[in-house]
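Q: Protein A?
A:
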Amino acid sequence: PLVMAGGVSGQVVFGEGERSAAGVPVFIEHEETRAVVHAVTFSDGEFYVFGLRPGTYTLTIQSEYLDRIQGIAESVTLRVDPAAASVMVEGIVLRISVP
């Protein structure tokens, strides 16, 4: 059967000045299936992923990356719902801070 797919786009920012964070590995995990899609931010800190199945996703920064820079970042949970007005979830911001 045909399954409608959606997408997500956003940006990773670093520090209090919210500078763009390039080359950051972002994990997008489907909560129900535990399938993980990887993305890496572009030079402007932006990332995007298409072809996501409907469902709830958690976006996180790869823990090894955070360990390497001694940073912390909160995850973001969102819902991809192709039945909604838009199949694209946009404007997600993941913030990295260094204590």
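Q: Protein B?
A:
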Amino acid sequence: MGLKPEKLRGMSIVELEKEERDLREEIWKLRLQQTTGQLQDPRRVRGKRHDLARVLTVKREMEAGGSR
């Protein structure tokens, strides 16, 4: 199950940056497994990329002051 925006909005910028680093590392590992044919479920890569996009979106919202 992916990350929920409500949960992400409750995090600080530092926590979001840590989550971003963790997701980028996990995506890299999954892509490596996919390349070597060891990945059982290729949909996991897509899900993690969506999670990363959510983290980046919430982070940008917070940096912009939350205004739209």
